[in-house]
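Journal club prep, shared notes

We agreed each person brings one worked example of a sequence with its structure written out as tokens. Mine is Flagellar protein FliS. I'm keeping it raw so we can talk through how to read the token line rather than staring at a rendered picture. Sequence first:
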Amino acid sequence: MNRGYNGYNNNGIGGNGNNGNGGNGEVNGAGTYGQNGNTAQKYQKTSIETADDGKLVVELYKGAIKFMKLARKQIEEENPMEANNLLIRVQNIITELMNTLDFEQGGELAANLEALYDYMLNELVQANLDKDAERIKNVEDMMMQLLESWQEAAKEARKEKRRQEKVRISAEGQ
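Then the structure, token by token:
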């Protein structure tokens, strides 16, 4: 069953450019201000729209990790409303990651990721209710491991793409 966007990579996981936080192109939560803000927003939006699927997943993971760190800090500073808002952003990102899983192409990997994402969502909901920074940290650690794996997979995919391009150019030159 294919859920969502059809632009999946060989791992069965893809992205559609929706960053799960209101669609404003702020994957990492970096707002833009001042005179050049509009240009920066346009650049960031274009960067997201033209990124390959692996890069989008990496950016979503980075955004989720950043928001979890900020949420833990807000809990420590006894600012529960801001922690709530940040955790909702993380939940939206994880939901987007779940929606981009391709079960036809990804098979067991997609099913395992879905179960892990579901676990993370449940942990974050409970952490949000209890304002439990340790629970958030546990999800953050899991997300860090996934990020490292995705970064390596994206790197390998780029190498393979360059190799295939060289073969294609070489074949055209003969």
